[in-house]
Amino acid sequence: EKLHQLRTDDLGHNLLSVQNLLTRHETFEAGLNNFEHEGIRSVTDLKEELVSTNRANTSNEQREKIQARHELVWNNWQKLLQTSGLRREKLKKAEDRFRNIEELFLRFAKKASAFNSWFENAEEDLTDPVKCNSLEEIRALIDAHDRFKTVLEEARYDFDELKASDDSIKSLNMAANPYTWFTMETLFDTWKSLEKLIRDRDGDLQLEKKRQEENDKLRQHFAEYANAFHTWLRGIEYA
Q1: Is the Repeat keyword given for this protein (predicted)?
Q2: pLDDT band at 3 (very low <50, low <70, confident <90, very high)
């Protein structure tokens, strides 16, 4: 029965469950260790005493049976120890695997949260209405937007790291990440939304630039007409 329990394929389904199994196994092995000192050695000592040639009331046939019986017990005991050791190794490997998965889950969750926060701030800036009163103002907005698109390369690097983490998690055939509701699919949608916002912002800025250029031309024409009118008016006054 003990051997059957040790040969089970149950290695847990997450870090906590495998650690619980390890704790139970360590308790089991502590019991084995105690039994080895109290039980197996006592059986061995008793066997040595029974097969001792000094015992006149023990025949050779009895000694052979005792020896064979002890050998069977000893072999079963060694097999139990060996199986227990193999079980411990499997649980340790499972623990390492689930710890690695846990780290991947946490890393993805933290990066996904940071990326989403960055996106929300970027979204707010990209959807801010484009309203200017001069060419200088629209040029400043265009410069700021160009700087943002330069920083976008860093965001792309973070996004690629997220995808690499997601690929690693999926390669392990694990269930959903328990530390975040973000998935790579939702983040892909977020990235596509960001690209559209950038294109829309580019268009809005260029339209506003064109409007301000036209306004600037109108202001210049008005200034020219005003100066001409002022000159004409002064000519009348002196006439």
Answers
A1: yes
A2: low
Helix, strand, or coil (residue 11): coil
Q: Which of 85, 77, 88 is nearest to 24 (CA)?
A: 88
Inter-CA distances, 81 with 4, 29, 31, 153, 168, Å: 13, 9, 11, 57, 36
Torsion sign (Cα): 215, 216, 222, 226: positive
The answer to whether 98 and 18 have CB atoms below 8 angstroms apart is: yes
Q: Give SS3 for 181.
A: coil
Q: Which amino acid is at 238?
A: Y
* pTM as predicted: 0.69
Task: Tell me how many degrees the CA angle 56-72-52 measures, rounded to the nearest 5.
Answer: 20
Nearest to 119 by CA among 203, 188, 204, 200: 188
pLDDT for the residue 234: 76
* Torsion of Cα atoms, 172 then 173 then 174 then 180, to 10°: 90
The residue among 219 and 61 whose pLDDT is bigger is 219
CATH number of 104-238: 1.20.58.60
